[in-house]
Amino acid sequence: MKCFSRYLPYIFRPPSTILSSSCHTEADIISTVEFNSTGELLATGDKGGRVVVFQREQESKSQPHRRGEYNVYSTFQSHEPEFDYLKSLEIEEKINKIRWLPQQNAAYFLLSTNDKTVKLWKISERDKRPEGYNLKDEDGRMRDPATITTLRVPILRPMDLMVEATPRRIFSNGHTYHVNSISVNSDYETYMSTDDLRINLWNLEITNRSFNIVDIKPANMEELTEVITAAEFHPNQCNTFVYSSSKGSIRLCDMRAAALCDNHSKFFEEPEDPNNRSFFSEIISSISDVKFSHSGRYLMTRDYLTVRVWDVNMECKPLETYQVHDYLRGKLCSLYENDCIFDKFECVWNGSDSVIMTGSYNNFFRMFDRNTKRDVTLEASRENSKPRAILKPRKVCVGGKRRKDEISVDSLDFSKKILHTAWHPSENIIAVAATNNLYIFQDKVN
């Protein structure tokens, strides 16, 4: 983002509210959002196991205002509910993560995962159909070979464009615990899948075998003190990856050092201030998301109240710390009672690593400019998200006299939460998932 502050306070405006329904069910709740490497496609997964792929509208001189709009390109059922009879355990169909693979040909490929199974999907277009088979009729029925007296050459006829999604690989039986993240390696041949206690390395061509590269399961489960919460590969070093834990620590590992990366290369953790120690300290320090910057120089982590930026060459303390919703510090008790304190917020970089975005409650999402140190709170809602309207910044009032444009911390709606967001890899276009609605905002167009 060349000039983030220039767009304050109206950084993004919505071309349209993309995905919404007035009466939604639990299955409609969006559980992941991801742009592909060019930003031309945007995929969402939901709790019902569906994947919806949106394609960006081509720019036209007659309708320049349509720049940035996304329309439905393909919808398919990625996962179905299953039942593990050996463990008497229901396996949800909810899509936990989607990751795109770089485009190699006319087709697109993406990985999607629920709690147990990762699938590789191919999304391709078809606008021609073959006709004139020798061994079967046009309706597909096999012909009697005795009736075939001439040899025909099949030809391709034009047809209406059809987008097909086909599962190319199914990677199953690799995890005992729930998969919380997947990450494609920069060699584009391998990827890793992560559950609470283990990280597995897979080859994209091999479905029946994976290599365990991290295992933190203790011999006695009563000695378990932390779990893995997220993991990601370095953007351009195929041997390096990072994973975060529920104790607020980040470990950087090098696969060249050993086959099993139980011994990390670098360890990032900020010691807690004893004066701020409370019953909730351990819960709110758990890292819910970790992301490498596009350059690979920085790490970004999100815990319940803050976003931190780390320099990979400096383990002693974070480079930057941003308070997302510090006004909730006095409400941790009620947030614990309604289970909101266990919400897992994600965080994303913009294309140039200069701006950070993450979600909050009341359908608020926050942006932090690393250069100017300015920040803004915006709201994703139908009421203030009319097409081509300008988003106004929101402010939360903590006690005292409330101004006209402020909202009291006591009137925040904790059932409306922005957990999943995505940023276009090269432009100022963002996707924000608010329960069952997907909002797409773009910067101000003159």
Structure description:
The chain has 446 residues and is mostly beta strands. The chain has a single domain, classed as Methylamine Dehydrogenase, Chain H, CATH 2.130.10. Helices cover 3% and strands 41% of the residues. The protein contains three helices and 32 strands. The protein has helices at 4-7, 281-284, 332-337; strands spanning 12-19, 30-35, 41-46, 50-56, 70-77, 82-84, 89-91, 97-100, 108-113, 118-131, 155-171, 181-184, 190-194, 198-203, 210-215, 228-233, 240-245, 250-254, 266-268, 289-292, 298-302, 306-311, 320-323, 347-349, 355-359, 364-369, 375-379, 395-397, 406-408, 420-423, 429-434, 437-443. A four-stranded antiparallel sheet has the order 1-32-31-30, with no helix packed on it. The relative contact order is 0.15.
Features:
4-stranded antiparallel β-sheet, disordered N terminus, 446 residues, 41% strand
Assigned CATH architecture = 7 Propeller
- Quick one: biggest sheet? 4 strands, antiparallel
Our count of domains comes out at 1
Going across the major beta sheet, what is the strand order?
1-32-31-30
Summarize the structure in short.
The chain is mainly β and 446 residues long. It is 3% helix and 41% strand.
